[in-house]
Structures are given as C-alpha cells and as structure tokens.
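User: Can you fold this complex?
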Amino acid sequence: MDYSRPHLADLLAADYVAGTLRGPARRRFESLLPAHPVLRAAVNDWQARLIPLTGSLAPQKPPAAVWQRIEARIGGAAAKAPDAAAKAGWWERLALWRGIAGVASAAALSLAVLVSSPGPAQAPLVVVLSATGETANGSIAPATFVASVSADGRAMVTKPVTPVSVQADKSLELWAVPAKGAPRSLGLISSSGTTVVKRGKVLQDTAAFAVTLEPPGGSPTGAPTGPALWVGKLQI
Amino acid sequence: MPAPQPSQDWSDRSRQLSQLLSRAGLGDRAAFATLYELTSSHLFAVVLRICRDRAQAEDILQEVYVNVWRSAGGFDAAQSQPLTWLTSIARNRAIDGLRRAQTQPQLQSATTDNDEDPDVYDTTADDQPGPLDLLSRASDARALSHCMQDLSAPQRQSLALAFYDGLSHAEVADKMGEPLGTVKSWVRRALLSLKSCLENAARRDAGARG
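Assistant: Here's the predicted assembly.
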C-alpha cells in the first residue's frame, strides 16, 4: 500500500484514531508513523477532531497506589511543588515559553553538514537547540542551533543553522542544564559560525543545553543572567 | 482535585498543561506530579471505559505516565493540544491492552469459551452513561455539537461504540446486530462527515475573525 497517498493516509489515520484499526494493521500503521510526515499530520488532525469527544467522560480518580508505582519507576520521589516554585529559575521560565510559543523551530535541518564524524568509533550526539520564542528586544532571529557532542563527552561543536544577529554589546553563552541544580557554563559561542567547546564531561548529569544572551565576555556571576534564547533537550 | 469539565476547561487548561509538560521534559518531577494530578482522572476514565478491568486499567495508566515522563520532551505544542496528546497516548495503550487481553487466558472473567459476552456493554450501562449519552455530552463543544447532528442515528451509534468503548468493527456489528460491511461504512461515513463539517466550521470561524 502506498501510504503517501493523502486520501488513503487520511482514511487510515481516521480508523487509527477512532480505534477501529486493529491487529497487525494497527501495528504496521504505528511502525510507519515515525518516517511518514503525511501520516503523522493526518493522525494529528484526527486526534484534534475526535479526542475532544472524551471530554464527556466522568473523571475517575485512580487509586493512590498508581502514582506511587509511577514515582518508583521514574526514579526518586517527586518533591511536591512548593520547593520548586521557590527555586523557579530561568530554565523553568524558558520551558514555559517553549510551551506557549510552540517553538518556532526550523522543521527541516540538514544535520549531516555539521556532523563530521570523528572516525569510525562512536557517533557523536547531535542536539538541536530550538528557539524559545524569546526575542531579546527583537534583535534575534528565531533560528536554530545545532550542537554535536563527541561520544566521550569531552568536546562539543555548536553552529547556528543560519547566522544569528546579536547586538554588538552582547554575547551568547552556552550552558549545560542538569535535571536538578544550577546550569554550568560551557563558555561563549559564536553567533555566526562554528565554535568548538572543549570541556571535560560535557554530558555528565546534563539534561539539556541552553544558550543565553549575556553581557560581553559572558555572565559576570557564573549563573545565567540573560534570557535563554535556545534550548535543546538531550535525548540519549 | 480539579476534575476536567466537559467543555470550557478543555481549552482553558491547555496552556498550563503545556508548561507542565515542557518542565517535565526537562526533568522537573514536581511539574510532572502536578501534571498527573490534573490529568490522571481524565485519562483513567478513558482507559477504564475501554478496558473495563480496573486492575488492568491501573496498569495501563501507570505505563502511560511512565511513557509520558520519558517522552514529555517530545511534546510539540505547535502540533497538539496537551490533553489531546496525553489522551491519545492513553487510548492507544488501552486499545493495545485489549489485544493483549484477548490473546491471554482470562483469569477473572466469568465468560466461557470463546464466546464474546454479548452483554459486556449492557451490564455496565446501568450506572454508566451509554456511548450515545457521552456523544451528546461531548457535543457541548460547539462545532462538534452542530456536526454531530449531521450524522444519522446508526452512524452516531456505531461511532460511539467504537470510539468510547474501543469496540472493533466486528464487535460493533455484533452489538448492533448488523452486517459487518454496513457497520464499517457507517463508521467511515460518520468520520468523514464529521471531518468535512468541522473543517467548514473552522473556515467559517476564520472568515468571521478575518
């Protein structure tokens, strides 16, 4: 079957979302989704149409044991809200922007250009840093940064997909953001070309990379002071 | 515990849920806990409606949220409403669960042999709204309400049985006592009619705003 035919894709997606696509056909359809943008778009559209129908179901509170089992599986007790609210740092705010703005991220990226693979050993890790939507006085175009980290985590190369214009009196600073705790500076990066960052253990405890706008020479405090303009989560 | 309301909250809460998902995607457990509090009752209702076995529904809900925790960073607010995204994950797991339950030996069910229990829907209908009630409630959402009226009664019923209760075409045909081919075409026409009606409504909205 030719899944790229829009009409067929649409009918299959409708069946899939309605739940009537079953058995091997359902599994085959799911396995095709990652590689077929037409199918994915059709599924998204049908979900938007049909899933609101579930709004009429009366809520059913699950037993507390379910959450306890989830907590156990995602590792560590989740500190309940208060502490986090007090510590709300810029990376939480940037997550917020990301959520609202939906990230004007460049959809199609040619990563191959950047990834000059270091020998036949392990492939480097590529992270796409998407614009948060924060524009820093309108001076920054919503481009995308790509970062490539060597497999041993000791070197990293960053490059904007398209050159980024930054005010003359500002610098871009790269940060490794851990799941918990303060971001670590990885140094300044170029807004127009390639920057090679050599730091030990770039990947250690790192959950995401972020780029902030800082005074020339970088943050004076060692912690981010300006808005985070790009962020990319590490997917290992 | 704030409970999802049928219509207006659907969009009102999207923004908050998007933020929580983004934070969870960056490893923020507190945000994830809040997300669970706000959404688990809705997702549990969806799963329970489809798989009906409470213990299995709880297992599925657990899988769903572990999965959400791992893939929260992949949520794209430009592509989906957060509750739509979460509910879709839950529905897919629940439907997969049906398949597994059918291929595994029944441990608790009272049904015998390979006989599909014809009353699986009726037995729970007393204290639960039927699929058609659910459709009309969901129809509070304005465009959907208008579009539901365009469906014929059998189209509505077959769609409701498939969508809410997770019945296959064959199971819907059994329940309605109609031929499989007829039911298939009812469901398909219902879906296509909804699609074109909702698209027209969206165009009218856009026209009214522009």
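The radius of gyration of chain A is 21 Å. The beta strands of chain A are 125-131, 145-149, 155-160, 171-178, 184-189, 195-198, 206-214, 228-233.
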